[in-house]
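Hi D.,

Good news: the full-assembly prediction came through. Inputs first.
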Amino acid sequence: MRFGFFLREALRAMSRNAAPSLAAIVCVVLTAVVLGVFIPVVQATTGTANEVRGRVVVDVFITEKATDIQVNQLREKIVGLPNVKGVKFISKEDALARERGRNPEAFELLGTNPLPDSFRITPEDPDGVAGVVRGVQASGLPAIDEVRNREQDTDKILQATGVVKGLTGGIAVLLILASIALIANTIRLSIFARRREVEVMKLVGATNWFIRWPFVFEGVIVGFMGGVIAILVLWIAKETFIDPLSDRFALIAAPDTIDFPALVAVLLLASIAVSAAGSGFTLRRFLRV
Amino acid sequence: MRYNVQTTMATRTDQAALRARRGARKPDVPVVELKDVSKVYPGGSVGLERVSIRVGRGEFLFLVGATGCGKSTFIRLLLKELEPSKGEVLIAGRPLSEVTRKKVPFLRRNMGVVFQDYKLLPNRTVYANVAYSLEVIGESRDSIRRKVPDILNLVGLSTKLHNYPDQLSGGEQQRVSIARAFVNHPPLLLADEPTGNLDPETSIGIMQLIYRINRTGTTVIVATHDREMVDKMRRRVVEMENGRVIRDQVSGLYRPDESTTEFAVRLRGELGIGPEGHPN
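Then the structure:
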């Protein structure tokens, strides 16, 4: 492949068709900026949602009469269940200390400790919490007094976070589809304007790839330029708005969002790939002469 | 004729190159041969009907007939832009049905094509337009720099190297397209109405160029309805009507042996006026 020749051809075509090339670049910039804003937002929301889901637990209360052997039996049973991430023994003293910390006045009235020993189970997957509850109940061990998973709380948490995750995921997919369609369409327009040129090239005996390479190069250049501009815009926005804010409010420094360099790489690669592939594929229609 | 063989005759003269190429070929294989070729378009209209024709090396052939008689279909079949519905098209003895889609560009490199609407690349200069057909076959930049000015000189455009097609007259644009068609010296030159858009004076200039190309040994097929040109050149004429060949004359006229009186009769007849006199 004659790299230099195809590169020159691509640059020549871009400078001779400045308006469509510019439109394609602007298009790439806009979609890349939107994606660049949206990727961290999606990550922050799903991160928060997952954190909330992490609070879903199952409490297994142990009867007063249970012997140490029976308690150990129960612990082994729980550990053996599927979808169990962790088990923590909370003695009645621990429970009392925790509850007292929450509401000191109420507990001062109590003479004795009414709270039982318990196991707190953290499930692997919060959606499967009901299975864990059933598993413990079905074992029918004598040490079990009661199994509770704060049903209402759990249901609410699961529902709310599920909706948030679904929504952001759906919007992200739509946005990506819209970006690809928009870029492909702009490129198609600029190639459509040159379909006669392609026809002539075929008549003088150019092979398909000889015609296609300059268009692909053009796509790469458009994608690269669009990506770079978008990243500059995002970087300026980050420096001037987000960073000062996150210094002041801990809230904005969301837990696990993508690093800026990683974001840069993703955006740049995506815009180059989409516009190069767009150019290459769109051309196929006009190459059938 | 050569397929896939790179031309390496930059140092030799055209004539010497031609002799060398001729020597390498079998003498009696026609450059173009159609064997009982029919072409029916998807809509059902007939482009060609059972056409058989042989065009020998170095021949100059006029393809004449009314619009829609199949001239353009003929040319497009040779370019393998269309596939025949029946029969076989052979170029230099090789059936085009054997040429795969991938090899079509290499087939076309052995043919120069000239069209009525020039088909130049609009955003390239004259020089770049001609250079493109050399770049396509992978010619080195040095040899392109040598050959392009030569050929543009030959067609009389040495002063307009850096003009764009839309800055040229029709005749000049057609000269560029001829230069482009001939710059790598193909053994076959196809011209579809090359003078269709040009005035008679300019047409003569264009035809002279095509004739000159023919004199170097290139086989030339010209589809035209430029009656004057055909009559003056007295070359082989193939006349077509409704997709059939109705006349094949070695040295013919556009319409054979028709005096002015006969033409007048025909004209009146077609107008529905009697053989004699005026309607009033």
